[in-house]
Amino acid sequence: MSSSVGKSLVAVACVVVVGMIVAYAWGPRSSVAAEAEKGAKAEAQAIVRDHMAQWKRKNPARVSDWIKEEKERHKIQPPADNTHLLKGEQGKGHAYGNYTERDILMWARETEKLVVEGSLVFHNATLLGGTIGVSCDMCHPDASNTHPETYPKFQPQMGRVALLRDMINWCIQHPVRGKALAPDDPKMRALEAYILAQRKGVELNYGKH
Amino acid sequence: MKPKHKGVETRYMESRREFFDSMKGLDRRSFLKVSSAAMGAVLAKGLIPPHSFMPVSVAQAAGTSEASPAFRFAYISDSHLYGRDLNDRFARALLRAVDDVNNLDPQPDFVFYGGDLAQLGQAHELDLGAQIIKNLKAPLKIMVGEHDWYLDMGAKWKALFGEPTYSWDHKGVHFVVLMSVVERDFWTKRGMTPMERMLTVAGLDNGVQSPFMVGAEQREWLKNDLAKYPKNTPLIVFSHSPLYKLYKNWNFWTDDAEEVQALLRRFDRVVVIHGHTHQLLTNRIGNIHFHGVLSTAWPWPYAPEGMPKLTIEMSRPDPFNPNDGCGDGEVLVHADGLVDKVYNLWNRNPMTVAKGYTASWGKACIPPKPNRPSY
Question: A73 and A113, same structural domain?
């Protein structure tokens, strides 16, 4: 009997201690500590800004907002809107699927960046590696008439089933008279991204001629 | 810089030259053998009747109006020449068009060049173009395009060809050439160099540039120019951009089109012939009949929206043939001022949009439709 009372006392004591720890760690902070943290953050941000300003002074050519400039020149289809993932019950009670606004923004920005890079290559004979001044947009304004949704398809002229990248390389070698790009060449990846992006909403229909 | 790669066109031209060189060695007997074999091949394809070596005349006969035209002129357009060391393909294409026109028998009354002779308006590009089209046997009338203009704002082009806006009378028809590719100043504010300005205008899908227009000054000139002509005068107007609003994103567009059309409305019949769109294009707005012309350099895809109902779209060009969808052509002018428009497509049967087609709003004289979709 006495041992069971002792056990209960120990249990109560444990709960109290845990409660105190919780209250200390997650309870409201003292205003002094908060102020100190804020000051440290501001200081860190000032240092970062200073470094950035130094870098910008050293690299004036790279300061321009090339994504904004290219989007002004050429119409770029926006990537899919994923904001619906922030609404409703999705992810509740699960570690996976708890997206934040930051996730949504990062996906969109990174995806769009590759597409905009593709637009730069698409519209520039030199970047494309052409030797006769011909760039993709001269026959394919806004990537029209490229039909990425119809690949793979058999191209008798190539003697095999062509992927979009094979056709891109065919164009680079013939009308553009440049050197074929490796399948994982950053320029090839960017070109594919841009061409696919511009056909947003078109139904996939592989094999179509 | 010499091109590193021998392009398909270069290889084709070389094999063609070899073939003709080998032909020189033939005696009469082997020549007959070769030519009858060639004729047999053509007949087997069912292209033409045996009495004619010209598929052109046959295809024309199908779509042409019955009355014979009062006169005709030829057109070449949109050659987009680079310097001769950079790009031989576009120069060869223009040479081919000049050959086509020089081989017309009888010769046309004149040859109309539809603009964009150069790609980036550089003096050596325009000089090369001028040198090539100098070989035309018929008299030349020329219009300016935006690719000729925006490097030096037309200085070199004007030095070669004179003023871009002019008019003349020929066999009872009044002809007017407009400079329809005037753009609002988008370059000063952005601090662009002349070449940056030129490259911006040269990009069809470049949204930084402004829409094309004829402008108040030229509209005033046009009004005065037309004032002395009675309303039944046949009138043919040339403009580089289509004188209507088709698709703004690619500047298949003239911003003050309505104002210009208003000046033409008084006339019984007006024909507008425009370059810039590099494709078979037909439209009619009231009394004004519009016809596009082909490019010698490359075909444009059709605009994704705003296509005129009367246009019969040509099949999608074959990417494996650099000449497909390109070409030159003729315009057969009838006494009433309407025209049969001949598209001499290099890789396909030629196509004629007869005057009866636009006159009947597409109900009669329908040209044979291409067998494949355009896009």
Answer: yes
